[in-house]
Amino acid sequence: MRRKGDLPHKDCAACGRPFAWRRKWARCWDEIRFCSDRCRRTRRAP
């Protein structure tokens, strides 16, 4: 078992806060850009 501190992290594209890897994101981790559904809905315009 891995400790939470050992999991990969990314910064959210909307709010800039760091978020950690989740098991449900295992197959699509490279595509994940936002930390939550709220950030995904209120993302900044490109």
UniProtKB/TrEMBL annotation:
InterPro entries: UCP037205. This is DUF2256 domain-containing protein.
